[in-house]
Design a protein that fits this description.
DNA Methylphosphotriester Repair Domain, alpha/beta, 4-stranded mixed sheet, Arc Repressor Mutant, subunit A, 359 residues, disordered C terminus
Amino acid sequence: MLFQRPDDDHLYQALIARDAALDGFVYAGVTTTGIFCRITCPARKPRRENVVFYDTVAQCFEAGLRPCKRCRPLARAGEADPLVGDLLARLEAEPERRWSETDVVRLGHDPSTVRRAFKRRFGLSFLEMARLRRVGQAVENLAGGASVIEAQQEAGFASGSGFRNAVTRLLGEAPAGMRRRPLLLADWIETPIGAMVAVADGHALHLLEFLERTALPAEIRKLQKATGSAIAMGRNAPIGQIAAELDAYFAGRSARFETRLAGHGTPFERDVWRALRKIPPGAARSYSQLAAELDRPDATRAVARANGTNQIAIVIPCHRVLAADGGLTGYGGGLWRKRWLLEHERVMFSGTGGHHEPE
């Protein structure tokens, strides 16, 4: 690579300084607002712990972010190519629209030309971008108080089963491709705040996330790469156990989770996740408090990053982390879910000692 990316602390300083030298090479994702910006964005700067940096527009969309309306990070490509600019403008005007190749043809564009133009500039096709933008719009609707069903419909799914079908396609692999590879099973679990997908081998749970989380495809690819495993739809003992424990949790009977978890993450990330599991239901911590409990008072930012890499929702309760001022911070499942989970635990479990501290 001709461009060697600086570390994140230097990138944050570049964001503060609006350093034009990095414009177009790196994008800043803001976890609290769900947007991504150019390094030169003139908007008010977020706190360091709320910023994640990405190398490409595709990574930003896969993380569930939407383009900033102030700095318009897609505008440069649109200005250079009228075809791209036209479709970007239409997408921004109707982010909830279900685009198809037929729509592209009706506008007088050749689908192959459009696909190549978008892949070359953004690393994903126009239809892929439209799909991710639509799901991002659904997340916005949920955060604004829409019901889960309404959000599913806005995202282009006719029903809850549409989400499951989408995950089936995401995980699907030809049987021939599964030969001689370790196998993970995936299944969905219905909850009062939306369906979740669980991925496990015969011994431990590897992933538990809300099904419509826009970063889920990237998390699954990361898991497949880390384990070298194929994933097929099905249910095994760990998935059955976590489904029963989640049922007890949402019913208010128990906040204990004893399903064995796979040992992903760095040693530091696993330390942070263990600390998260020690936070009692109904309680909360700040990033700085967690860092102090780990005897790493200067590692607040690293703790925040480790919190963000957690892919075992609820069981590893990253929803119990608040900003230093007590406000809600970013949560992959959506801030509305974070608020719901905290209130549920406050009402159902405060003072019960119902949490489970892992060995």
